[in-house]
Write a structure and sequence with these properties.
Bound molecules: 1,1-dimethyl-prolinium
Distance between the termini: 10 Å
CATH class of the largest domain: Alpha Beta
Number of helices: 12
CATH architecture of the largest domain: Roll
Length: 266
Amino acid sequence: GDPNSIGGQTNYKIIGIEPGAGLMKQTRDALKKYELNNWQLVEGSSAAMVAELKKAYNKKEPIIVTGWSPHWMFSTYDLKYLEDPNNSYGGAENINTIVRKGLEQDAPGAYTILDQFAWKTSDMEEVMVDVTGGMDPSKAAEKWINANQDKVAEWTKGAQTGNSESIKLVYVAWDTEIASTNVIGKVLEQNGYKVTLSQVEVGPMYAGIANGSADATVSAWLPSTHLEYYNTYKNNFVDLGPNLKGTKTGLVVPKYVDINSIEELK
Ligand code: PBE
C-alpha cells in the first residue's frame, strides 16, 4: 500500500480492547462491511488502548482506536469519531440495568433502587474524571453521592431498607462501568445491603445474571453493542431499562488525523 496513506502510517492497525467487547464485534463487522481487508484489529484491553492513544497523541502520530462515549478521553484529548455511513456501530444507544430473576422477591429494596437508578453522561463523567485522576473508585463514588443527594434520593424513594442481604454486582473493567458500578454499589450499601463488586469478562457477566450466580449489572450496552449477549440470555434475566441514555461507539482518531469517514480507510 501507499506509505503515506492512513493505512501506511498506522501499519493498517486499529487499536482494539478486550476481545469479548461488543465494540470489537462491531469493528470486526465494520472491517467486512467496508471491505478493509488489509486492516488488522489489535486485541488488548481498554487500559492498553488508552496508553497507545496517549503515546501517539503526545507525538502527534496518526492512530485509530476503538472508542466509546461517555469517556474521559474526549475531554483529555481532541478526538473525533469517524463517520460510519454503513451504520456498523448502530448509532446512539443506552446502558441498561439487568437483574436476575427472583431478585425482586429476595431483595425488594435493592430491586427498587436498581430499577430507579438513572443518571446522565455528565454525572458519570464527574466520577470518571476523578478515577482517571487517581482517586480510588469507591472514594470517587462516595464524593459524587455526597454532592448529589437529590438524585440519590430519587433512586431510593420508596425502597425498603435491606436486612444485610448480599447483593453481587458484576461489571467489566471499562471506565464507564467502574464509575456506575461503584456508585450504585455504595448507594445499595447505604440502604442496608451487603454489596460485592465482581469484575468479570462480558460473556460471564451476562451468563452470571442468567444463571443466578450474580444479582445485577448496570453495564448492558443496548440495543446494538451487546445484542448477541442479550439475545442469548434474555429469557433468563429481567431488563430494568436504561440507567443512562445516549452512548456511542465507533472508530476514533485524534482531530489532527486528516480523515473523516471509515470509508476513507480503504
Ligand atoms: N464498551 C464500553 C463496551 C460497553 C461499554 C463500549 C467498551 C463494549 O464494547 O462491550
